[in-house]
Amino acid sequence: EPEVTQTPSHQVTQMGQEVILRCVPISNHLYFYWYRQILGQKVEFLVSFYNNEISEKSEIFDDQFSVERPDGSNFTLKIRSTKLEDSAMYFCASSRLSYEQYFGPGTRLTVT
Amino acid sequence: EDKVVQSPLSLVVHEGDTVTLNCSYEVTNFRSLLWYKQEKKAPTFLFMLTSSGIEKKSGRLSSILDKKELSSILNITATQTGDSAIYLCAGPTKQGGSEKLVFGKGTKLTVNP
Fold first, then answer.
1. Per-residue pLDDT reduced to its tens digit, B16-73
2. If you average pLDDT over every residue of chain A, what do you get?
């Protein structure tokens, strides 16, 4: 069964460094998303992406964040200058019709 | 602001028990409600309920939508230790071209042998 994949599974970085989190959505899906979950808190929406552009972004998704679909398969989230409070689990999701979203296994980002 | 509230936040039962998890939602322009199961990492999709499909069933799990009360329940019968997880309820909202999911805090279910 097709699934969303994410790499790396765990990323440790120092404050101020740039990180790129990678996702490969399900191949026939058209809508792509990033969510994050700080330990013990809700899953929170960051950004949605459709037709090669951002459809919607949350207040969390400030100028330090960017997303890209550099080729036909990858979908990336970049954080330019990480802060301690960026430590969280980051989930990529994709959907075909924008209703049922399927989540990847997540990347645990630890900022020290 | 769109909001999804789940109860209880935590539940401990014994194998074989039946549990009911609750979700209430206030989302703009309701279209559907989704249930996910989160074990160690990613939320895995369980059900989507819409106005045209207000009850779903898969094995021991079933879910009902009450559109009038803006709520949903998730039932698990004959619980097993493998059902231990956080169960998330989410409501899609749409602004612009795509949906985003608004999640509740989840119900942490622990099934003891």
1. 999 999 999 887 777 788 999 999 778 999 988 887 667 888 999 999 998 777 889 9
2. 93
pLDDT tens digits for range A62-97: 999 999 998 878 999 999 999 999 999 999 999 987
Cα–Cα distance list, A61 to A23, B29, B70 (Å) = 17, 24, 29
pLDDT of residue A46: 96
Report chain A residues touching chain B, CB-CB < 8 A.
4, 31, 33, 35, 41-45, 48-51, 55-56, 58, 89, 91, 93, 95, 98-106
Fold of A5-97: Immunoglobulin-like (2.60.40)
Which string of b and e fits B43-53 if b means at least 16 CB within 10 Å?
bebbbbbeeee
List all residues 6 or more positions away from B40 whose beta carbon is below 8 Å from its beta carbon: none
Q: Is the peptide bond before B8 cis (omega within 30 degrees of 0)?
A: yes
Contact B104 A42 (CB under 8 A): yes
Does residue A16 have a pLDDT over 60?
yes
Fold of B3-112: Immunoglobulin-like (2.60.40)
CB nearest A56 (choices: B31, B41, B100)? B100
Which is more confidently placed, B93 or B102?
B102
**Domain extents for chain B?**
3-112
Average pLDDT of A47-63?
91
